[in-house]
Automatic annotation (TrEMBL):
Gene3D superfamilies: 3.30.1120.10. InterPro entries: Alkaline_phosphatase_core_sf. Residues 103-135 are annotated as: Disordered. Residues 123-135 have a biased composition (Basic residues). This is N-sulphoglucosamine sulphohydrolase C-terminal domain-containing protein.
Amino acid sequence: TAKKSKFKKRPIFWHFPAYLESYNEKQWPWRTTPAGAVRLGDWKLIEFFEPAGGGSGTIPALPGKLELYNIKDDISEKNDLAGTMPDKVEELHRMLVQWRKSVGAPIPTEKNPQYDPKARAVGWKKARARKKKKG
C-alpha cells in the first residue's frame, strides 16, 4: 500500500493593496478594493483596508473591516462569522499582520490627492448613459 503523506497545515496569504475597476453597474465603481486575506485549514479571514461602503477617498489605519468564513461549510462566503467568533478572528488577524510585517507588504494609508468625490458620481452617470445608448 502507498504511504499517505500528511501535509503540514500552514497558512496561505493574499495581499492586494489596490483597486480594480468594475465591468458592470452591479459592482460600480470597483470590482475589488484594497484587501488582504489568510486561509488556514477551513478558515478564511479577509481584511479590507478601507472604510465599509468606500467612496470616502481615504484609507484608515488598521484594522479595517474583518470578515471570517468557514469555507468548508460556506464556499460562497455568504455567512460572515466575524461577529460570532472573535477568538478565531483575533488568531487569524494576528497571523496576517505578522506575515505582512515579515515581508514588508505595503498598505495604502494616505489620502489620494487626486480623489474627487464629484467625479465618481459623474462617472456613474456617464456609464449608465452609455449603456442606455447602446441598449
